[in-house]
Design goal:
By secondary structure, the protein is mainly α. It contains three helices and no strands.
């Protein structure tokens, strides 16, 4: 006895996490994450602001201690703090931006376009 052929069923799409963002917002987020544009996610902006603030404080503290301990530089401690704050600002901006870039790319590769 031969069995009747089974009807063809197309493969099902993988389950994609739904987000609370609307379709235009989701499309905008994909473009800004993968190509270019301003990131308007509040969570990303909050993370970046906190990270930069901590970087500024840590670098200012470290630089002021280094300048205070090294008298041959002939610089006041607050000069070192200002220099450290600028370096911390630049470091914090780039480090947090690179982290968010990699994090968002990995989420897109996994199909989570929030």
């Amino acid at each position: 006895m031969s069995e009747a052929p089974q009807p063809f069923e197309p493969p099902k799409a993988p389950n994609v996490e739904t987000s609370s963002a609307s379709a235009p917002d989701s499309a905008y987020n994909v473009v800004t994450d993968l190509v270019t544009g301003v990131n308007v996610r509040g969570s990303d902006n909050k993370f970046q602001a906190i990270f930069i603030g901590i970087s500024v404080l840590v670098f200012a503290l470290i630089a002021s201690v280094i300048v205070a301990l090294n008298a041959s530089w002939n610089m006041p401690w607050y000069g070192g703090a200002m220099l450290g704050a600028v370096v911390g600002l630049i470091f914090g901006l780039f480090a947090s931006g690179i982290f968010l870039m990699i994090y968002r790319a990995m989420r897109h590769f996994r199909g989570k376009h929030d």
